[in-house]
Design brief:
By secondary structure, the chain is α/β, with parallel strands linked by helices. The protein has 27 helices and 17 strands. Strand 10, helix 18 and strand 11 form a beta-alpha-beta unit. InterPro entries: HAD-like_sf (IPR036412), HAD-SF_hydro_IIIA (IPR006549), HAD_sf (IPR023214), P-loop_NTPase (IPR027417), PNK3P (IPR013954), Polynucleotide_phosphatase (IPR006551).
């Protein structure tokens, strides 16, 4: 086991840490101990944990790829403590590597862990007995010198308290090179000589900031309690990585799926039956600039400091974390794909646990609320063929259909695609406020009609009205179709009129209305019946063709599709999701049709007007399932 090898490699480090920690505890116990004494002693404890160069060399030799990742000095100390505790809790296999220290038995490790925990608890208790201001200074220093997992949890606790903090003087504790023993400074320089040269702080060589904001209210969580809470998420903090990562990103593989889906798989990704999906923007992160859209790849911050803490806890509990994000701006030129990838890599590097990422760049089956990305997990290999347990799966997103002022001063949700995505999948849904901060659900309203209604929209209606009319004519005629884009005109024409011998005239094929008029004229002059399959919303657009029929003495009829605006939008999204060859039709086209529409009448020259109640029929069960889902927001 990898963790067992680390345990054996770090036994000597634990011993050094115990000695320094006990010394720190003894110094603090004296009533004359000052905050500076505590700071120096606690810092020395962390530095001493790194003083055994032999153990560090052993780890580097056996686990070069893991050692190269961005672990701070504090995190090495954390490894020593937690590995010892795990060795105490469960038997370890025999050493497999000659470089591992196999001479240390379980009693040694047990005593080491116990002594270390005792020393840290004593230090924490002594710190809490100081005055309020001295307590804050010492707490900040002690936390900066404890294992990284403890520091991370305490920092998160301080961040949680930020929402309720009163206006107190801000206190930053900065452990510079002058505050640290020479051993710690030299190791920092070895890790990044360029960083050490540009800044005096050893923290400059690592992505973990040694500044800790202690300016919280008097109800701050005690240090000892914060350290106890840390044990629940320490497995997440110590998860080994498959390859080296840097402060600028995280190791993994970016791939393009079907030309429209950007996918990222971290090297250390672990598949699981337990999956929780997240939107990215305004769910996990927001902009530093305060603008609606990021100005560059560095314009991001966590939505709240508690967010990464919660994600690490979920990962430690065996839950696979997945980001599903609509990023059409990458194909529209608003977002640079390489910048976006850099941002995501930086986010995951800061988080420190693996998350799989799917970014839908188009308007096809991968764009939420369509379920194509999820199906890569459940039906494809994106989850390593591990079955997904839908009963525990969740999706978290901010596009939830909430009206303005769902919370005081909050704007209306820009969309409801996240909620519809979860509805399509049949899994639980929460907004970020509900999931991370336990807010009560806010009222919401989904846009459009339930797509299941569209399946049966015309089920009990005749194909056309009036029913006394005839769908086709025994003599030559002109039919002008009228209806929204994606209202079913072309399918209806191909299924019902073309087989009866009608010439099909369509602007999608010919390109311009002028060519359509010319083709209509030629077919009518050739004695053919013609059906013009365009939207033709108004008298002007229909009159061009009626004039051609009238000039030849040929009767004309109008066929109007009864498909509603919402139904047509659904059809449009469905065909884009299932037919990659179909060109995208923007909502502008639907709105223009609606604004121009007027009912065709006999005054325009039509001998008859039929209303068509047409919906697609499916023989493919999977297509019917998709058609029954929410397809747009």
């Amino acid at each position: 086991m990898f963790l067992s090898e680390i345990t054996r490699s770090f036994v000597s480090l634990v011993s050094a840490s115990v000695a320094a920690s006990v010394a720190a505890s003894a110094a603090v116990a004296r009533s004359t101990a000052s905050s500076t004494t505590v700071t120096t002693a606690a810092t020395a404890a962390a530095a001493a944990a790194l003083s055994s160069s032999a153990a560090v060399a052993s780890l580097k030799s056996n686990h070069q790829h893991w050692f190269a990742s961005n672990l701070s000095q504090r995190r090495f100390a954390s490894l020593a403590l937690v590995a010892a505790q795990r060795t105490q809790a469960q038997p370890q296999p025999q050493a497999q590597s000659s470089s591992s220290s196999s001479s240390h038995s379980h009693p040694t490790v047990t005593a080491t862990a116990s002594a270390t925990a005792t020393a840290i608890a004593a230090t924490a208790q002594s710190i809490q007995s100081m005055s309020t201001r001295s307590k804050r200074s010492a707490t900040a220093a002690a936390l900066d010198a404890t294992p990284a997992s403890t520091s991370a949890a305490s920092t998160a606790s301080a961040s949680t308290a930020a929402g309720r903090r009163s206006k107190q003087p801000r206190l930053d504790v900065d452990l510079t090179a002058d505050d640290q023993p020479a051993a710690a400074v030299s190791i920092s320089k070895k890790k990044s000589s360029s960083a050490a040269a540009s800044a005096p702080s050893a923290a400059a060589a690592t992505p973990m900031d040694t500044k800790w904001d202690a300016s919280t209210d008097d109800d701050d969580e005690p240090v000892a309690a914060a350290a106890a809470k840390t044990q629940r998420s320490v497995a997440s903090a110590l998860m080994p990585r498959a390859s080296a990562s840097t402060s600028a990103g995280i190791a993994g593989k970016w791939t393009m799926v079907a030309g429209s889906l950007l996918r990222f798989d971290p090297d250390d990704l672990v598949h699981s039956s337990k999956i929780i999906g997240f939107d990215l923007d305004d769910t996990l992160i927001t902009t530093k600039s305060g603008k609606s859209f990021a100005v560059n790849s560095g314009d991001w911050k966590w939505l709240h400091p508690d967010v990464p803490t919660k994600l690490r806890e979920l990962h430690a509990n065996g839950t696979k974390l997945v980001i599903f994000s609509n990023q059409k701006g990458m194909t529209g030129g608003q977002v640079n794909p390489e910048d976006w990838k850099r941002k995501v890599s930086a986010i995951l590097a800061d988080l420190g646990v693996p998350m799989q990422v799917f970014a839908a760049m188009g308007t096809d089956q991968y764009r939420k609320p369509s379920t194509g990305t999820w199906e890569l997990l459940t039906l494809g290999t994106a989850n390593g063929k591990v079955p997904v347990d839908a009963s525990v799966a969740l999706y978290i997103g901010d596009a939830a259909g909430r009206a303005a002022n769902w919370a005081p001063g909050r704007k209306k949700d820009f969309s409801d695609s996240d909620r519809k995505f979860a509805l399509n999948l049949g899994i639980g849904f929460h907004t970020p406020e509900e999931f991370f901060f336990k807010h009560q659900p806010a009222p919401f309203k989904l846009a459009g009609s339930d797509p299941k209604e569209f399946v049966n929209a015309f089920k009990n209606l005749p194909l056309f009205t009036p029913t006394t009319a005839s769908l086709t004519a025994p003599k030559q005629e002109l039919i002008v179709m009228t209806g929204f884009p994606a209202s079913g005109k072309s399918t209806f024409v191909r299924q019902k009129l073309v087989p009866a011998g009608y010439v099909h005239i369509n602007r999608d094929t010919l390109g311009t209305w002028q060519k359509c008029v010319a083709a209509t004229r030629d077919a009518l002059r050739a004695g053919k019946s013609v059906v013009v399959d365009n939207t033709s919303p108004d008298t002007e657009s229909r009159g061009r063709y009626v004039a051609e029929a009238k000039a030849l003495g040929i009767p004309a009829r109008a066929f109007v599709m009864n498909t509603t605006y919402e139904h047509a939008l659904h059809n449009n999204a469905f065909r884009e999701a299932t037919d990659p060859t179909h060109e995208h039709v923007s909502r502008i086209g639907f709105n223009m049709y609606r604004s121009k529409y007027s009912d065709p009448t006999a005054a325009e020259g039509f001998t008859e007007v039929l209303r068509i109640n047409f919906a697609p029929a499916f023989t493919d069960a999977d297509l019917l399932r998709r058609y029954s889902q929410w397809m747009h927001s």
